[in-house]
Amino acid sequence: MLLFNSTKSFFNALSETGNPMNYDGYTKWYNQYAAYVKEKKSGKPGIKCHQQPFKLCR
């Protein structure tokens, strides 16, 4: 049971480390970028692709 709990704890910590939203610098950059995209997307149809880069834009 000790090995199971240690493994679970390790992989939970690894998941948190691999998530960029857990880092203040990335979160700050992402929020600024999202605000920029929101501001610019109203006038330019191509900017919508930047908001969802992993989806196909039409």
Short summary:
It is built from 3 helices and no strands.
- How far is it from the N-terminal to the C-terminal residue, by CA? 52 Å
> Which whole number gives the mean pLDDT?
78
Beta content comes to under 5%
What is the chain-wise order of helices and strands? HHH
Q: Count the DSSP helices.
A: 3
Helix fraction?
55-70%
Number of strands: 0
Give the low-pLDDT segments: none
Major sheet characteristics: none
Give the structural class. mainly alpha
Structural features, described:
The protein has 58 residues and is an all-alpha fold. It has one domain (2-51). Helices cover 67% and strands 0% of the residues. The protein contains three helices and no strands. It is rod-shaped, with a radius of gyration of 18 Å. The relative contact order is 0.08. The model has no long low-confidence stretch (mean pLDDT 78).
What topology emerges from the helices and strands here?
Blueprint: H1 2-18, H2 24-41, H3 48-51
Question: Which key features would you list for this structure?
Answer:
58 residues, mainly alpha, rod-shaped
